[in-house]
């Protein structure tokens, strides 16, 4: 069976791409997500490569790249966030998958650009066949907020969970760093103050994805999957000293972004404010994915977050890219859950 590969046109092929992805990816989100992600990214339109069966013209695979400039040692570089990789189950041999991903990577990493990915286990096998190893690992750190007495059941459950939850609350109130900074729900949209803060915090690492105000609004407030919850610490002269972005998933929540100096009063105010608001809403656990080498990890551990599963993080550049050694090491990156594909 002959499989051909070509770059798609995200406008002309929109219906076919959205339809194929909707059948292959359980959380794809249909045409609304396609329009938002492939067409309305403020950094530009997505690019996609397709594989099809030459015998019947049927699409059998898609690989996509979403534009995301990366700042490396203070200089912006063209970057791509990889995602929406899908191959029809009847064609899931490594051969077609490798050819599809190689076609995408050979193109998007030309001219000094770089690409990054958070691959699944099966996708990591594709990268390893291509001689690409993880630059690091993202660890999910989890913190209990409320202990559910239903696990023990009835009166016993209430007797166990109520004091235990009280102890968790007390630890946050007394055992964590004290600060006079205050985190409040952000009214309105991200603006220049948040963009300036993101630039300053990103400069503390050698490699950071660009967080413009337009991108933050698109990424967290305009998503068709529902707006995220944003808290901010505002200092003197209306300067933004930190902001956090949370998405609730039932009785669980994920800290998608946390932008503040790693051990500043603002970061502690945000963690306290997020925990307090989520408890009021009845959320049981809060997860904070972070690179294992992130300077935020000691802060998360201090706040009662514990490591859970780890997933790989991959960076791909052209073989002659002079930035290869810098961007190829996860310890140089500022990376949060919000930098993943969507």
Commentary on this structure:
With 342 residues, the protein is an alpha+beta fold. It folds into two domains: 3-133, 3-Layer(aba) Sandwich (Aminopeptidase), CATH 3.40.630.30; 139-312, Gcn5-related N-acetyltransferase (GNAT) (Aminopeptidase), CATH 3.40.630.30. It has helices at 14-24, 30-39, 94-108, 121-129, 154-174, 192-203, 213-221, 265-280, 297-302, 324-327, and strands at 3-7, 47-53, 59-67, 70-72, 75-77, 79-87, 114-117, 136-144, 184-185, 207-209, 229-234, 240-249, 252-259, 285-291, 306-317, 333-334. The strands form two sheets. A twelve-stranded mixed sheet has the order 1-2-3-6-7-15-8-14-13-12-11-9, sandwiched between helices. A four-stranded mixed sheet has the order 5-4-10-16, with no helix packed on it. Helix 3 (94-108) crosses helix 4 (121-129). It is globular and about 65 Å long.
How do the helices and strands line up, and which of them pair or pack?
Layout: E1 3-7, H1 14-24, H2 30-39, E2 47-53, E3 59-67, E4 70-72, E5 75-77, E6 79-87, H3 94-108, E7 114-117, H4 121-129, E8 136-144, H5 154-174, E9 184-185, H6 192-203, E10 207-209, H7 213-221, E11 229-234, E12 240-249, E13 252-259, H8 265-280, E14 285-291, H9 297-302, E15 306-317, H10 324-327, E16 333-334
Parallel strand pairs: 6-7, 10-16, 13-14
Antiparallel strand pairs: 1-2, 2-3, 3-6, 4-5, 4-10, 7-15, 8-14, 8-15, 9-11, 11-12, 12-13
């Amino acid at each position: 069976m002959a499989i051909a590969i070509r770059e798609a046109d995200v406008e002309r092929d929109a219906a076919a791409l959205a339809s194929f992805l909707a059948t292959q990816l359980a959380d794809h989100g249909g045409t609304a997500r396609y329009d938002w992600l492939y067409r309305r990214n403020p950094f530009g339109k997505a690019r996609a490569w397709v594989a099809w069966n030459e015998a019947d013209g049927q699409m059998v695979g898609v690989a996509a790249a979403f534009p995301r400039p990366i700042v490396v040692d203070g200089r912006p570089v063209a970057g791509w966030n990889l995602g929406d990789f899908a191959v029809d189950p009847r064609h899931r041999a490594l051969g077609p998958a490798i050819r599809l991903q190689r076609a995408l990577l050979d193109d998007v990493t030309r001219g000094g650009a770089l690409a990054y990915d958070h691959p699944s286990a099966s996708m990591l096998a594709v990268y390893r066949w291509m001689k690409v190893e993880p630059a690091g690992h993202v660890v999910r750190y989890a913190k209990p907020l409320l202990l559910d007495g239903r696990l023990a059941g009835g009166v016993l459950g209430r007797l166990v969970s109520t004091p235990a939850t009280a102890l968790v609350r007390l630890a946050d109130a007394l055992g964590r760093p004290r600060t006079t900074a205050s985190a409040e729900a952000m009214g309105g949209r991200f603006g220049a103050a948040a963009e300036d803060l993101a630039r300053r915090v990103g400069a503390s690492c050698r490699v950071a994805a660009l967080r413009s105000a337009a991108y933050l609004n698109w990424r967290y407030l305009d998503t068709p999957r529902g707006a995220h919850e944003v808290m901010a610490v505002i200092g003197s002269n209306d300067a933004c000293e930190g902001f956090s972005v949370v998405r609730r998933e039932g009785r669980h929540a994920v800290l998608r972004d946390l932008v503040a100096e790693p051990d500043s009063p603002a970061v502690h105010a945000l963690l306290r404010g997020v925990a307090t608001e989520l408890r009021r809403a009845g959320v049981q656990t809060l997860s904070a994915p972070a690179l294992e080498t992130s300077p935020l990890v000691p802060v998360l551990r201090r706040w009662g977050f514990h490591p859970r599963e780890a997933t790989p993080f991959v960076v791909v550049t052209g073989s002659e890219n002079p930035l290869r050694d810098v961007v190829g090491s996860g310890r140089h990156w500022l990376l949060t859950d919000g930098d993943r594909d969507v």
